[in-house]
Specification:
The complex is a heterodimer of chains A (112) and B (114). With 112 residues, chain A is mostly beta strands. Chain A has no helices and eleven strands. Chain B has 114 residues and is mainly beta. In chain B, strand 9 and strand 10 form a beta hairpin. The chains are: A mainly beta (112), B mainly beta (114).
Chain lengths: 112, 114
């Protein structure tokens, strides 16, 4: 079992809808959580980080963390075709070296 | 922009030849990383460095070596390239903001081993 799991998709949503992307992790010692967006042929770009249980909002993006259930999610409100990309979840343990573990990514398609 | 550049950006080489990829950063970050990204596997850590001359292996280090003789440069070497090392290679740095580290990626190098 991979340490960080994501549904590979593709997840297809209509323009203007809410896209919900999910990520589960296996290490209960994980302390920091990140969402990256990666357009085809480009490098991953950090869009959200979250460190404590609950929701964190940044513009149209909301990250949700539930450590008891070991999942982190990303909601994209008012989805736009420009949001079409692969979204990578990354998880890091507390202390020591900063070596995050990445999920394989979920492909999101927002159709007009 | 975390000031990360990679060179070359594209390379085609033949099986058995040595290849060196360079990652350069301008902001004196302590941690640097090399990842490869392949369809179906996501990002996999090859090696990382936590200071000059301080490096350690990641999950897919076989066939790769690294060196860091200066803070700003982290080199990845394929001693004898194989077709299985055809991939996109990303360098990354981690930046500390407050008590938290965050990782930023370079533009990537596309390597094709024939």
């Amino acid at each position: 079992q991979k340490e960080v799991e994501q549904n590979s998709g593709p997840l297809s949503v209509p323009e203007g809808a809410i896209a919900s992307l999910n990520c589960t992790y296996s290490d209960r010692g994980s302390q920091s959580f990140f969402w990256y967006r990666q357009y085809s042929g480009k490098s991953p770009e950090l869009i959200m980080s979250i460190y404590s249980n609950g929701d964190k909002e940044d513009g149209r993006f909301t990250a949700q963390l539930n450590k008891a259930s070991q999942y982190v999610s990303l909601l994209i409100r008012d989805s736009q075709p420009s949001d079409s990309a692969t979204y990578l979840c990354a998880v890091n343990k507390a202390g020591g070296s900063y070596i995050p573990t990445f999920g394989r990514g979920t492909s999101l398609i927002v159709h007009p | 922009d975390a000031g990360i550049t990679q060179s070359p950006r594209h390379k085609v080489t033949e099986t058995g030849t040595p290849v060196t990829l360079r990652c350069h950063q301008t902001e004196n970050h302590r941690y640097m990383y090399w990842y490869r990204q392949d369809p179906g596997h996501g990002l996999r850590l090859i090696h990382y460095s936590y200071g000059v001359k301080d490096t350690d292996k990641g999950e897919v280090s076989d066939g790769y070596s690294v060196s860091r003789s200066k803070t700003e440069d982290f080199l990845l070497t394929l001693e004898s390239a194989t077709s299985s090392q055809t991939s996109v290679y990303f360098c990354a740095i981690s930046e500390r903001g407050g008590s938290q580290e965050t990782q930023y990626f370079g533009p990537g190098t596309r390597l094709l081993v024939l």
